[in-house]
């Protein structure tokens, strides 16, 4: 038996000229001049030629990175606006005050170091996983095909292509076997383009059907689309509601901080006639706590640790905000094959139709299996069931072939049989190849209801490339395939149902068959199936149909894209999973695209998350990690911003009342460490299964503003009462101690509220922070170090009483906000 050779004659007429993004790339400054396209050579380059081109620098050296460089990590963590402000204040304090008033600077140094270390760990994880998931194109050299790294391709290499392969460099088609390439990711045109020898191909496009090979004509940075791919695959931290919300908060904090700090400086250094150095110290003490310096750090650390945790589960997060994005998803669209079922299938039965001879049908299937050098899962099952054999089988030859297409729903092959008879055969979806009223469809429906996949083998009239080749095809046999269910898919579907995430199964297979498979896995609403050929084209009507049904069959790649858009138009956050080339457009348009590691190069390239272990069951871990990040950062942000609010208000009150600022930097360093810094670090990394909520900034400020107002009012009230109570030498230190006690107790109550719901370690965390402050108050040398000493009994108990009243008001306010706006 012979296989049809790939068309390498080059005698076909090239297709019409079309504008492409490669043309735009010609305007860029080249890294090195490229020679004209080499002559087409079926054996590819020789080893000597490859070495020569590497020496000339004609190699695909684009550094596609999954993470920031070490230099970028250090720069991003060190050179920040708030680090600059705190750094200047720290230097000033080192000259005018004792070392204990400069502790805040050492804390910032430690925080920055932690941020660098954690992001470096995340970088190592990302880089190692990216190598595992890297596309390995097949290149022909010295007449032998071998997989190599993308970066090893040189100018003039002959790169082979098959269904799902991504074009990794620009080139010219040398061999074409019904080659269809989708360039929509570059040009926006949804329809695949048929490529013939001599036609250009662009890096970033991908093969949807057929096969062939192309000669690399532009490598490295010369390929314009390759530059886009490099930029798109780089590490990113900013495009998320969480991080953009924090940026918004920091912008408002800066606006509040600048005029308040100026007023405080004037008040403490000009209006009040105090010791200059102590005035400077108290001024700095008022400015430093306005800065939520640890908030960005903890957000970065939470993301970075999330990447490391998911990396241990063989989950590559190509864009860090995808962790957060998947946690916000309320609809998951699943492709059945490769997600709910394993990639392989088994032929369970072949049913001849209309009196066909079983031995003849077997021979047709055996020969059909040899027609496609890159068979899909269905054809591979037929090849496994009917392997090539000797004898008469060798006299059957394949004269033409048409690879499977998701848009067509069938493949085809033309044979010359042993007796010299020519025949044309189609293999694909029965409800596409048969007329609507055909009696065979009833029999097929019964098989579909059992969750079996059914293909129809039909004999066609005319040639494969004739328009309407499927019209009038004579049914010859049914090929019944059994799909292998993923053992963990049922538990994953149950998890999403429990989390109120709607699941939609979208497949190119028969809707009834897909529904039966989904039903076996326990999918709620699996009985609500819809054939996508009856899906309305109006976006609003399509959105309604999507919300009312759970299973969709006979879906084309363009329809998958339209269905994602329809759901998004109703305000849904949509995740799309898939592994086939027919999923690429939908993966690209979904809010979060999830690809299997064994999927096509094209799907891995556009997905934000790649499951390298090919396990759908990893998704709940990603959702849980995202919810941990979002929920915990929301808690932590409330802590930090409560401090910012009360610091700004205290400074304003000090300016308005023309009094000394009550705190030295050491006091607020102690309070921040015990009520925010240490507990925030633990709370940011704790388990958290709360469903992600939108409007991060609004939700945080609803709690932080009233909490900060109450803390500032209680603290300043204690300070004013203490000013009237104490007099003489040491009065300011006693007043500061009383105000510090009130502020600590109120801040502790805010922490106690945020730490809910309580677990043993959360209770222990709050108790440990309270114990730490108590130790400072009772150990003499710590009293001296932090300048904290409670004088007498009436004033400290008054401070406690004011704090208790403030705590009661905090409880009432938080509960009212929760009832009024929801948690």
UniProtKB/TrEMBL annotation:
Membrane topology label: Multi-pass membrane protein
Domain of life the protein comes from: Bacteria
Disordered: region residues: 1-44
Keyword tags: Membrane, Translocase, Transmembrane, Transmembrane helix
Location in the cell: Cell membrane
Transmembrane segments: 78-97, 103-120, 252-271, 291-310, 636-661, 667-686, 707-726, 738-756, 763-783, 795-817
Record's compositionally biased regions (Polar residues): 1-15
InterPro entries, sorted: ATPase_P-typ_cyto_dom_N, ATPase_P-typ_P_site, ATPase_P-typ_TM_dom_sf, ATPase_P-typ_transduc_dom_A_sf, ATPase_P-type_domA, HAD-like_sf, HAD_sf, P_typ_ATPase
Start and end residues of each P-type ATPase A domain: 137-231
NCBIfam families: ATPase_P-type
Protein name per Swiss-Prot or TrEMBL: Cation-translocating P-type ATPase
Naturally occurring in which organism (per UniProt): Streptomyces anulatus
């Amino acid at each position: 038996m012979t296989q049809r050779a790939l068309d390498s004659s080059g005698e076909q007429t090239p297709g019409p000229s079309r504008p492409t993004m490669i043309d735009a790339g010609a305007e860029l400054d080249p890294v090195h001049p490229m020679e004209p396209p080499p002559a087409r050579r079926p054996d590819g380059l020789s080893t000597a030629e490859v070495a020569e081109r590497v020496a000339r620098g004609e190699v695909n050296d684009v550094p596609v990175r999954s993470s920031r460089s070490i230099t970028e990590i250090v720069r991003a963590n060190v050179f920040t606006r708030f680090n600059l402000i705190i750094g200047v204040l720290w230097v000033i304090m080192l000259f005018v005050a004792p070392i204990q008033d400069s502790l805040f600077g050492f804390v910032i140094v430690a925080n920055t170091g932690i941020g660098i270390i954690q992001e470096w760990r995340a970088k190592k994880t990302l880089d190692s996983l990216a190598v595992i998931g890297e596309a390995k194109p097949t290149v022909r050299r010295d007449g032998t095909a071998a997989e190599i790294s993308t970066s090893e391709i040189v100018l003039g290499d002959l790169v082979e292509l098959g269904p799902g392969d991504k074009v990794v460099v620009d080139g010219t088609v040398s061999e074409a076997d019904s080659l269809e390439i989708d360039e929509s990711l570059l040009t926006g045109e949804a329809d695949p383009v048929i490529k013939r020898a001599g036609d250009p191909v662009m890096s970033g496009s991908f093969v949807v059907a057929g096969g062939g090979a192309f000669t690399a004509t532009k490598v490295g940075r010369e390929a314009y689309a390759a530059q886009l791919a490099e930029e798109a695959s780089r590490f990113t931290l900013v495009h998320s509601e969480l991080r953009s919300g924090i940026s918004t908060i920091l912008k408002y904090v800066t606006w509040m901080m600048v005029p308040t700090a100026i007023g405080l400086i004037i008040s403490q250094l000009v209006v009040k006639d105090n010791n200059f150095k102590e005035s400077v110290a108290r001024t700095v003490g008022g400015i430093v706590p306005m800065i939520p310096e640890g908030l960005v750090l903890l957000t970065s650390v939470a993301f970075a640790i999330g990447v490391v945790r998911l990396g241990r589960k063989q989950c590559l997060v190509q864009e860090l905000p995808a962790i957060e994005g998947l946690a916000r998803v309320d609809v998951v669209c699943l492709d059945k094959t490769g997600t709910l079922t394993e990639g392989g299938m088994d032929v369970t039965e072949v049913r001849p139709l209309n009196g066909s001879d079983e031995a003849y049908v077997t021979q047709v299937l055996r020969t059909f299996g040899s027609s496609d050098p890159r068979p899909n899962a269905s054809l591979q099952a037929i090849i496994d069931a009917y392997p090539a054999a000797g004898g008469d089988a060798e006299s059957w030859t394949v004269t033409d072939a048409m690879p499977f297409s998701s848009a067509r729903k069938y493949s085809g092959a033309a044979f010359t049989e042993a007796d010299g008879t020519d025949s044309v055969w189609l293999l694909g979806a029965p409800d596409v190849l048969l007329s609507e009223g055909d009696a065979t469809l009833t029999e097929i429906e019964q098989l579909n209801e059992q969750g079996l996949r059914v293909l129809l083998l039909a004999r066609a009239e005319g040639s494969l490339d004739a328009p309407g080749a499927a019209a009038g095809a004579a049914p010859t046999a049914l090929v019944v395939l059994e799909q292998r269910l993923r053992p963990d898919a049922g538990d994953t579907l149950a998890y999403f149902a429990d989390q109120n995430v709607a699941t939609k199964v979208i497949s190119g297979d028969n809707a009834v068959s897909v529904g039966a498979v989904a039903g076996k896995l326990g999918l709620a609403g699996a009985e609500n199936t819809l054939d996508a050929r009856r899906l309305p084209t109006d976006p609003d009507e399509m959105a309604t149909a999507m919300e009312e049904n759970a299973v969709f069959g006979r879906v084309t790649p363009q329809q998958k894209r339209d269905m994602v858009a329809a759901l998004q138009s109703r305000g849904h956050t949509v995740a799309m999973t898939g592994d086939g080339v027919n999923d690429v457009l939908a993966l690209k348009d979904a809010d979060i695209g999830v690809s299997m590691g064994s999927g096509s190069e094209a799907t891995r390239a556009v997905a934000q998350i790649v499951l390298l272990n090919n396990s759908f069951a990893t998704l709940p871990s990603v959702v849980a990690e995202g919810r941990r990040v979002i929920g915990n950062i929301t808690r932590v942000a409330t802590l930090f911003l409560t401090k910012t609010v009360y610091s700004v208000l205290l400074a304003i009150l000090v300016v308005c009342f023309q009094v000394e600022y009550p705190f030295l930097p050491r006091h607020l360093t102690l309070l921040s460490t015990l009520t925010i810094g240490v507990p925030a670090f633990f709370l940011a990394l704790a388990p958290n299964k709360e469903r992600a909520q939108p409007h991060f900034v609004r939700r945080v400020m609803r709690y932080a503003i009233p909490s900060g107002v109450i803390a500032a009012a209680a603290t300043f009230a204690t300070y004013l009462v203490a000013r009237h109570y104490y007099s003489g030498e040491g009065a300011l230190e006693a007043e500061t101690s009383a105000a510090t006690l009130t502020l600590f107790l109120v801040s502790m109550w805010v922490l106690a509220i945020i730490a809910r719901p309580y677990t043993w370690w959360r209770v222990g965390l709050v108790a440990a922070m309270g114990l730490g402050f108590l130790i400072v108050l009772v150990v003499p040398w710590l009293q001296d170090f932090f300048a904290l000493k409670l004088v007498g009994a009436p004033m400290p108990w008054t401070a406690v009483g004011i704090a208790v009243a403030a705590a009661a008001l905090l409880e009432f306010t938080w509960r009212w906000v929760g009832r009024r706006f929801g948690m």
